[in-house]
Amino acid sequence: MSETNTDEKLRYSDAELAHFKKILEEKIAEAKEQYELIKSAYMNDADNGTNDTAPQFKAFDEGSAVMSKETSSQLAIRQEKFIRDLKNALIRIENKSYGVCRVTGKLINKKRLELVPHATLSIEAKNMQK
Fold first, then answer.
1. How big is the CA angle at 93 (ends 91 and 94), to the nearest 5 degrees?
2. How is 4-37 classified by DSSP, letter by letter?
3. pLDDT tens, 80-103?
4. 3-class SS at 103?
5. Domains by residue range for the chain, with CATH
6. Which of 46, 58, 62, 87 lies 20 to 30 A from 129 at CA?
7. What is the mean pLDDT of residues 106-130?
8. Cα angle 107, 109, 114; round to 5
9. CA-to-CA distance for 114 and 116, rounded, in angstroms?
10. Per-residue pLDDT tens for 2-30?
11. How far apart are CA 58 and CA 55, in angstroms?
12. pLDDT tens for each residue of 18-76
């Protein structure tokens, strides 16, 4: 298996880092778009065009709006953290420490980084946490 080869390397090559940088930049752009959608949904939840609904539905509607705002707020916070994690991964690319597991010191599998480009733990280290 080629994983033993990657374990022996201390870091990914500049070409490999450039590949991951492109993935990260695309993910950041997507994440920022999602964040803006979440934020605009949160901002537009104020009215929802329900001013003329029957009074018996008013309490339910207000409760639903509060719940929707809370959900949107939580999603926005998670999305901000995701963007921050992706940007931190870009910094690790710049200082050439990207893809190195912070627990084992070994290289994180390339396939894992392509799926989770902001990962800082190898599967081995993740399993040790359980």
1. 65
2. HHHHH-SS--HHHHHHHHHHHHHHHHHHHHHHHH
3. 999 999 999 999 999 999 999 999
4. coil
5. 3-129 (1.20.120.910)
6. 87
7. 94
8. 120
9. 6
10. 444 444 578 999 999 999 999 999 999 99
11. 5
12. 999 999 999 999 999 999 998 888 777 555 555 555 555 555 555 566 667 788 889 99
The predicted structure's pLDDT at residue 7: 42
51: its two tokens:
């001013």
Question: Which spans in 45-109 are helix H?
Answer: 58-94
* Coil, strand or helix at 97: coil
Which of helix, strand or coil describes residue 21? helix
Q: Report whether 75 contacts 38 (CB < 8 A).
A: yes
Report the chain's terminal Cα–Cα distance, integer Å.
Answer: 25
Q: Both tokens of residue 35?
A: 């964040």
Torsional class of 116: left (φ above 0), alpha (ψ -120 to 50), beta (otherwise): beta
Measured CA to CA in angstroms, residue 71 lies from 5, 21, 81, 125 at distances of: 45, 31, 15, 32
Output the pTM of the full model.
Answer: 0.74
CA distance 94 to 130: 31
